[in-house]
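dumping this here before i forget
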Amino acid sequence: MSTVSNQDFDLKRLVAERQDERHDLCRKYLNPLFVKTLKAVGFDRHYVRGQGAWLWDRQGRRYLDFLSGYGMFNVGRNHPAIKQAVRDYLELDDPWKIQMGATALPGLLAEKLLEHVPHLDRAHFTNSGAECVETALKFARCATGRERVIYCDRAFHGLTYGALSLNGCQSFREGFVSFLPGPVSVPYGELDALYDAFQKGPVAALIVEPVQGKGVYPGTPSFLLGAQEMCRQFQAQFIVDEIQTGMGRTGKLFSFQHVPNLEPDMVLIAKSLSGGMVPVGAVLSRQSVHEKVFSRMDRCVVHSSTFGQGGLAMACGLATLHILFEEGLIDNAAVQGERLLAGLTTLAKEFELGHEARGQGLMLGFELGRPQSLSLRTAWSLLHAADGGLFPQAVIMPLLDRHRILTQVAGHHLDVIKLLPTLTIGQAEVDLFLQALSEVLEECHRFPGPAWTTAKRLMKYATRHNK
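structure:
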C-alpha cells in the first residue's frame, strides 16, 4: 500500500499563494452578488487571521469582532483548547462512522449536555441549526400525529424548506413558491393571539426563540410561561430554539434557564456548540417524544444523517462546554452584557437618533429612531422612503472604517444594530465599542455630515444595482 507524502498537498502554501484572490474566487464560482454587496457596504476586507474577539487584515490592522459569525464563536475564534481537541481527535484514528455501530464521543457529549437540562432525556445530533428545526418538526408531528405548527412573527429558524415555512421574514421566502402546509404565525409575545391559534385546530407544536434574533426582542417570562402552559393544555410540543441564544450567549447556558419553571419539550442547539469549528447541532428532547419516533427496532434509524454524530464535531462540542465553564465565560457574558446594555441605554437617551437598547447577556440590539429636529427628520424620511433598511449602514460602515469594529444590522428593513461579541470580551472591549458608537452617533447628528453622505451614496448604489 502506497503512502502520500506531506509534500503532495500543502494547504498552508495554497492559502498563502492565493489568499488575495478570495473575492475573485467568490465572484467567479460562488456568489457574485454577495461580493458586490460586500463592496457596497465596505465589508470587502482581506482578513487573514482570527483570534479570540479579534480579526487581523493583511496590513496587520486589528478589528474588534462584535458579530462573531452570527454567534458561532462564543468562546472566541480559534480557541487553543478547541484547536488542541482537533489535533487530539485526529491522533485517535477514531472509527467514528461504522453505520451499524456506536462510538463513545456522541454519548459523552449527549451526557454532558443533558446534565445541564435535567428535565430532558435524549439528544439527537445534526449538522446545522436548520437541520435541528427540520428534526424537531418531524419529531413533533410524529409524537402528536398532528400537522399544524405555530411560530411567531419575525421568527428566524433557518432556510431549508421546513424551517423556511416557519420564517417570519418575507424577504427570505420571496421566490420560493409554496411552503410546508400547516404552520401558522402569531405576534411574538401576545398570549391572546396564541390562544386563538390553538383554538382553531389541533396543534403539533409551538416553536419560539427566547430572544428573537431578527431585531433582538427578548421574550418576557410571562409570555414564555404562558406559551408553555398552553402547549400543556392543548397537548402540543413546546420547542425552544436556542440555536443563537444558547451556549452561554445570554448569561446562562441556555436562555430559557433565565425563567424559573420553564421546561420545554425540545431544545435546539447549534452555531457555537463546536466553538464554531465544525458544523453541528443537537435536538434535546423528552424520552416520550423520542420513543414515539424511534418506536420499534425496525425504526431505530428512521431519522438520521450521514454526518450526524461526527466524531470531530463531538470532540469540539466537549471542548466547548469545558471552556465555557472552566473559563467562566457564561458568567462573563452576564457581567459584560449588563455593562454593555447600560452603556447602550445611556447612548439611546443621549442622542436624538437613539431609540432603545435591549437584549439579554451578550445578545443585544441598539435601535435607531426617527429624529425630531426638522433637518434630521427630513433626511431620515428620504432615506427610508428609498430603502427601509439603509440607514443603519450609515452607523455600521464608519464603525468598521474608522474604528475597526465589525457589527451588522439585525434584519431586513430594521433600524437595529445587532451586537453578538464573543463571550471572551472584557471591560476594555466594552468601553472601546461604546466610545466608538458614541463618536459615530455624534457624526450622524451633523447634517449634512459624513454619515449622511455615506447613506446617500448607499442609496444611489442600491437604486442603480437593483434595477
